[in-house]
């Protein structure tokens, strides 16, 4: 008889130690200890938690922001690397799964990725996902990832997938995860007080999480960062009214959404903290009777989605024989 | 200079004259007159408004429901036909666009479709969409449509698309409309007091409308039916506790959702009535800067969706010449 | 509201005036008068009623049968022709539909077809069907028809299709009729006392009629010929033990089968007579909920049947311009 | 000189241990031992014998049935898996072929298939067939299979094909098996006391088996389940009058039909038991002279059936090179 | 009841009045009178009876033959014209059908055709056939006809077709006549003592007539010319050893062949005279049971013969609009 | 310089060991040894030599003949298979080409073909031809082949084609071989004492061979079977007067016909034996000057014959991708 996992999930709403990679890793490890201590088997961290979000893109001109790019670059990490080793070690020690956002360096100095890491409770870095398209002002900092990282990972607690921030708007990216049997979706974000005035960030996060949970009949864990006084102070160096710009309400939302699209328990709005929720994957069965867009409620005789999972290649070296490319 | 349409939309929340095709068409025409009188240029009617939803599938056994199927069948319509002619005439007379759900007969007696008609303000039946997959108990009544009706129609007031009820859960169907430039989406539903207890129909409608509007940066008009005492009385013939089963609260939602996913004005919950909203399509421009999943915010080097729009053929008669099939 | 036809059908079980085309046409007309007088709106006659079945193929050697072929040939008819004119006139006078089997001459003297005529109540010869493949010994007499005659004809009393004898075994021929909306199927046969001993003709007729009715949820009218003493006496000329060979029991079955595959009323076995049955096409609706192999119960994404309806051409005369062949 | 197999077949009429997958597998193994002990080389089990049929769909509302769906889901199996291993082992030990119906889990929680397994006497799971379209109320539980499983398997005892229940109504599915040289057809069913009153299940089973055997000139083995007091008691939890609803006579039929469409020996109606029959495949030769719809009695110049055997794909992951899709 | 014609046919073996058109027409008329007087309803004359065969092509060099071409040209006729009027008149007076070969002038002086005329018993010139390809040395004189004259003509005595001499070797030309229902084939020839030594002209005529009759199950009337002393004397003008060259035995054959390929009665070899035979078209029926290459014994799903019947056009005047050629 | 083959051909007139496939193959091999020993490079065997002709179709009723069909079926062969391997081996050992008729089994039990095998002197089975249409009574036994086997095979001794029995009547089938450059035509037959009285089998064979040789200017090798006392005795089991029916004179003809249509040497009539003839293909050149119906003596601007060589398909399995059907 089939027996599906039950576990406690933790959605972390917190800020990194801004642009300080080592301190931020330490902070992450300490949050892991806390949440695991409270029984969490899955701990979701915000987008680019290590080591901060390039707010300058939204409140400075590109040229002003240029030196900040360098600061971010040198505080970014390689994957794997010493920083990921530490986090993996913590996951193993505390027997919990961790999904966490990082700034990942590529090969070229202009190649910085907004990456989510998926780490299992054995401390194994089982996968990573590079955000496909940075959102609006983020294009000034990050390079888009490729289709090779649109994966769902089977773990002891169930199949886990993740998308960063605006990607949760992308119908096709979401469907690509759903179709791999995703039951636990981590959508992580950053607090975005700088969005246009009629853009209610907390609401926009909720709409997308509810939609993904409802369409896929699964659990979505939303983890969002916060903005600390420290961040504002740092930005003030170049933007005198940074405080005004970075303190809008309803800019962050963390919480857990169930298979019917409803929030489980209380979400956190703007405040730092950890939201816990009990997840029972067997709750994903009954709603599938209504709509199973991966099964009886879709029409794969009509819809044929093809996803190119080839890693990006900058160049291909061949021996001149087309049929035998390497 | 591009000048995008502005107009008033009406979302009708009403019940048909149950299983009486002629009386229901008359009622539809009278609602058209009223809404157009109030300035509406687009009037959205509920799913299968003509002439009713097969509630028996949810509250009777299939065998009990069998005779009701026949009643529905003989009160279904062909498209086009005398009933659609009447509705088209009303649209023309009142110079308004109408989207309305009907029970459409196919060629075989088991072939009944849940169809939405799109009629323009010249009284032209510009298109129809047959629901792709009936939802759960509805499978006992309807046959699924094919990909040929997943179309967006250009009209004087803008490009209109429509999906019926549960189809709004289907990521790929929604994307297929978005990609054709849809700016006005009609999502129509039926009041569903018979869903499972943890399924809040009004909320489930709203989640999907918000998601579609937010992902596509467009306007969604939601029209949902209501359940009258008459319907309950008719069902009581076979189901003594029909009243108890068919009167749950929060079972119907009609209203208009804007490009940011937020409800415009006040929606109607459960009550019969008409929701009006002013639509200004130029509001769809600015949000596209953030996420345009049909443009800069998607990755068509990764995602390749192919949609089979071939009409379903039960058989193909040929003249024996492969190259010249008919 | 859809209103489907109700009418009385007559299944004729009778023998022709053997190899006498004029006398047989007279007999057919007199049966039409009788059945129409009893209220029948549809009268089904046996296979090749005009003017007899080539029993010699089963009880003589081919060479012995050769002279009988010539007798049959000169007693065959062209379609249309004076004989069909007479039958059409009778159908018109008695306001009834007639399906009747004839031996039809083609252009070449070796081209004799086993043809069913479909005549409406206005006396119009609306169609004909030439048996596709003659059964076993019949191959000595008849040429197979082509796909152009696999048609269902819409009439006042509903859509009518017909197959002759063994064709009712052909899954694909049957489906080709079903898919055109057939609701009234005429399966006509000849009494076949000469089949192999373990072949129970009456039962074999019933199996096929039940299958077609059940699969298509329609009415099948079975009309079968009988063998008279006259036929036996004529065959005795060349086959002394003709009586013994041609009098096996259970060799003929006529009757009406309903949409559930069950015989309506009492069928006729072996005896000459007319079986009447009241047909109500609305009975074809409810069973379609269970299995509608033309609609929700088939998979046209899997099955793609193509039927070549081109008339057989021995030669094509062209004007030398490929694009405008005649 | 060609020498065709002769063997004994067993058609099992029995009920599973309702919704208890392990106990049902044990029961299946014990029946295999018994039937093989009586000389059977082929043992046919009912549709979804492992571990029961969703009767709730016929006697409860969909919402009431929802929790039963979950019970069925967790008592369904993967193929292959530990349960199929056990059955294969039994087939090998007893040197017999087994065809048995199971509830098979797909990847998504809404994806449950009505699957028939074909196991040979070496204990090899040679194939499986997923029912293409669930029948009426069954649509509430099962997803339809694809064309990849419409196969006939060559075994020591001859070529075996199978269709589940209502599929035997599908002309085109049947023909697809016939055309692969099927000589032994297993049609399995469930006892269906809940069909509409004018639907005589035992008769409806017989009509279809007779038609398939007659059209294909082959042997059909029909195996049907029974309804035990245990099942009724379980259903009584939610449906007080379950006993009345589930005890109609003539709801189950098991037996063997020969190439002429006649039942061989005595079939079992409603009662639990095993029907044995001696099968001699050389009996399939002589009747082919009369009608061979795969050979001389068909017209493949007219009929061109194309069957899509591609497995259903929810999505296709490519390496970006169209010519080398994976 | 079908009643097929019976009649007497006459195959004329005679020589023209060499290169004297008027005298030859008179001779033809006198033969018509004689044969009709003996009861013939169909009288077949040799190839180019009017007014002689260009033997010079076989026994002179082309340049020597040149003046003879001119003699032939001026003794050729137009069709219709005064000469054909006379022959038609004779056919009418004697109530008989006539097929006769003539040298027909075309529009250009180099355009001379080897033409057979078909005249009915009302004196109507119902058709003509121009030899498609002249044989070997004949190419020095005649132009080939086009496909417009490959016709079979229905007459009171049955459907008549004709081919001249070597055309009876052309499988496709023969088949083109057969397929139009030809039952009476006129194959006319000229006495050919000048063929290569191992070419037995009488035998070669018989082989082809037997083949056409056997394949088509029809009657072939062979009419062949003779060589008179007059012809030899005329040729001697330029070819001293003309007598030696033009008197080989077995160079002419006239007679009638029946549907089984056998000669009816006695043919004429070399000698001038008339062969009479009684034709009963009903004899064409029974042999069709064996092989009917226009019906059951052919495979028009395999063979598709297209025949261009467009009259030869030397030039086409257009208005420059391709789609509207005249 | 072109050097055309010269060789000795052997036309075998013999009977099989009736309905005993193994003994007949042995007899064939022994005849190969004998003929090759006498210098033959090409040995032609009768139609369906392996293992006999279904005479019962001509002298019994179809039902009486039914059991004999089964005997023939089990004594038929697959191609290739162990029996063809043996014959190929003999051809290789004796360095000669063999054309031999066999009863070939298809996939369905009603699918028996009248097949000629073409084997070269390396023991390679280079091709087979399935008779397109069985003749008259033969339709009770054989299924017609398709156009894929209308081929001429280039061999060391020249281009070889073959047609079985009545096919040599088919103008279009013959032309299809001619047009591929056929120079050596094998026409094989069975002794047919059972034809209608006015059908002289030996003469009918000769007419067709002469016609084909004359039209195509090629060599025809005719091989015909004989009827032994053994065959008569076996048929006597069911037909007391079998001896009378099966002993008519002039029922078999074997021999060789040259390019002018004349028999070379002495043919064999009725008696068992081998006819030898010296073939010199250069004899096919000169007669082409007179009539070359594949070249200057035809009019391909008028005649356009299209031959469908597609193998017959009962069904087509596709992967759903029209462009890549299998």
UniProtKB/TrEMBL annotation, chains A, B, C, D, E, F:
Pfam families, per database record: CN_hydrolase (PF00795)
InterPro entries attached to this UniProt entry: C-N_Hydrolase, C-N_Hydrolase_sf, Nitrilase/CN_hydratase_CS, Nitrilases_CHs
Mitochondrion is among the record's keywords: no
Gene3D superfamilies found in the cross-reference section: Carbon-nitrogen hydrolase (3.60.110.10)
Limits of the CN hydrolase domain: 7-281
A molecular function GO annotation: hydrolase activity
Active site annotation, chain numbering: 47 (proton acceptor)
Annotated SUPFAM superfamilies: Carbon-nitrogen hydrolase
Keywords: Hydrolase
UniProt cross-references to PROSITE patterns, sorted A to Z: CN_HYDROLASE, NITRIL_CHT_1
Protein family membership: Belongs to the carbon-nitrogen hydrolase superfamily. Nitrilase family.
Xref: PANTHER family: CN HYDROLASE DOMAIN-CONTAINING PROTEIN (PTHR46044:SF2), NITRILASE (PTHR46044)
Protein name: Carbon-nitrogen hydrolase family protein
